[in-house]
Amino acid sequence: MSINQLVYVSQAVRKMSVDDLREIHVKARSNNELIDVTGSLFYNGGWFLQVLEGPAPTLAKLYKKIESDPRHKNSRVLYNEPASFRTFPRWNMNMTNLDERQADKYDELVEVIDAIRSNRKIGSASPAVTLLKLFKG
Ligand SMILES: Cc1cc2nc3c(=O)[nH]c(=O)nc-3n(C[C@H](O)[C@H](O)[C@H](O)COP(=O)(O)O)c2cc1C
């Protein structure tokens, strides 16, 4: 089945505790398993970055639900394109908490997206991987 990869960034409405993040993670993992969605969720200094992978109609519905979640705001889709493979085939939702690390990556993220849009090479098989590297770095 053909799949899309959707990447968005958003801002937490308040500082997320380890328990807050665990709650999101547990729910996401079990829900996503039922709808054949995989991906990865990063939390870093008040920012979320999430990669969602699955059938396009499924992602559209899921993103709508996630976007309206009151725990975050200003969600912005950076990337939503067909993908020939899953970057996170083994994770219904991986979660990485990078809190307290430098998180002011928003401009850089947007720059990478612009590069993707204008077909400039960013030197990776998957834009999602590039984004994640950037976010972690
Ligand atoms: C940053 C963030 C990421 C989330 N990611 C997912 C996800 O990948 N899958 C999911 O089902 N819910 C995710 N959620 C939770 C949804 O917004 C929503 O609370 C949940 O899906 C409701 O599940 P229910 O319909 O089973 O009650 C996320 C929430 C936040 C704040």
From TrEMBL:
This is BLUF domain-containing protein. Signal peptide: none annotated. Residues 3-94 form the BLUF domain. SUPFAM superfamilies: Acylphosphatase/BLUF domain-like. It comes from Massilia varians. InterPro entries: Acylphosphatase-like_dom_sf, BLUF_domain.
